[in-house]
């Protein structure tokens, strides 16, 4: 019932494991999403927060907002949360909402950020468990932040692709040849801008903005074989970078960074991607499996720099 939204990259786990395995406390950045459009889990608690014990209440630095925490302790509230989560996890709901087949298991928790931190916690617990640790050992669990994907305060942003040490004209020719061989029609609209968001399912084309010093506009790739624009682009881009030893690929959050670097260097180009529709996130994971690396980001950098909650992971 707990699934990553992005593929776990094994090479990113060892340094995280080295930090966690002997640490007395954890303070991770693991954002877990539930698909709760009726707002049955978190919002009822938020509506009664004035009656809950306040743990902290302070301004964050650098104009990053305000943080308030309340402690949920009553058995009635805890039972209500558990009951609501069970309803979200029912197989009947899962099949109706996502068009899942009988052999697919329900997804309740989608790890939207911190996939590798959670995978690290699991590996560390497995190592502790192998030493004979009891099942109530604190390392068995990982602290996460549970979010309703439909919360108005939760915003999804695209992660764009920046290429350096490349020939933009060669890239365009290679990309066009690749997708035409896949059975798509590739067209280019000079000076156009990409769409801000994309729906999932039923897409007849993907629009991806290209930026370089001499050529900028939108490529439209018809009849894509994959659901997301990021997946479509990466199906060509990753092999292209691997085949060109000098090419350097970077993942960039802000459009202005892509545009500034691409317009200032003949050997630099960027691809601007649309934002995945957050309401379709779990549907996409059900239909496609894990998403391509760096498909989306939740919030801007100033909103994600604070790790407030901590818990002990050693007895």
List keywords for this structure.
alpha+beta; 4-stranded mixed β-sheet; 315 residues; 6-stranded antiparallel β-sheet; globular; 9 helices; 2 domains; Conserved hypothetical protein from pyrococcus furiosus pfu- 392566-001, domain 2
Describe the model.
The chain is an alpha+beta fold and 315 residues long. The protein folds into two domains: 2-155 and 299-312, no CATH class; 157-295, Conserved hypothetical protein from pyrococcus furiosus pfu- 392566-001, domain 2. 31% of the residues lie in helices and 25% in strands. The protein contains nine helices and 18 strands. The strands form six sheets. It has a six-stranded antiparallel beta sheet with strand order 10-13-12-15-9-14, with helices on both faces. The chain has a four-stranded mixed beta sheet with strand order 1-6-3-7. Helix 1 (13-20) packs across helix 5.
């Amino acid at each position: 019932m707990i699934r990553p939204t992005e593929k776990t990259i094994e090479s990113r786990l060892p340094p995280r494991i080295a930090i966690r395995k002997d640490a007395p406390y954890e303070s991770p950045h693991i954002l877990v999403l539930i698909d709760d459009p009726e707002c049955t889990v978190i919002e009822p608690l938020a509506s009664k927060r004035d009656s809950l014990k306040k743990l902290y209440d302070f301004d964050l630095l650098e104009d990053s907002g305000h943080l308030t925490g309340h402690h949920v302790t009553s058995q009635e509230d805890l039972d209500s949360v558990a009951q609501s989560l069970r309803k979200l996890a029912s197989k009947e709901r899962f099949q109706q909402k996502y068009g899942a087949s009988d052999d697919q298991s329900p997804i309740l928790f989608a790890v939207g950020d911190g996939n590798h931190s959670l995978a690290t916690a699991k590996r560390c617990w497995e190592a502790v468990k192998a030493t004979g640790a009891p099942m109530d050992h604190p390392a068995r669990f990982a602290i996460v932040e549970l979010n309703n994907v439909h919360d108005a305060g939760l915003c999804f942003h695209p992660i764009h692709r920046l290429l350096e040490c490349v020939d933009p004209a060669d890239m365009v020719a290679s990309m066009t040849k690749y997708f035409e061989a896949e059975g798509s029609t590739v067209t280019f609209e000079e000076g156009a801008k990409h769409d801000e968001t994309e729906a999932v399912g039923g897409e007849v084309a993907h629009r991806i903005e290209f930026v370089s010093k001499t050529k900028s506009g939108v490529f439209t790739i018809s009849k894509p074989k994959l659901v997301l624009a990021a997946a479509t682009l990466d199906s060509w881009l990753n092999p292209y970078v691997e085949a060109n030893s000098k090419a350097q690929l970077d993942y960039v959050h802000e459009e202005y960074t892509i545009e500034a670097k691409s317009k200032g260097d003949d050997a630099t180009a960027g691809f601007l991607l649309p934002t995945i529709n957050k309401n379709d996130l779990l549907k996409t994971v059900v239909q496609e499996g894990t998403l391509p690396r760096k498909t989306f980001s939740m919030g801007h950098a100033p909103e994600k720099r604070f790790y407030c909650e901590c818990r002990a992971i050693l007895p």
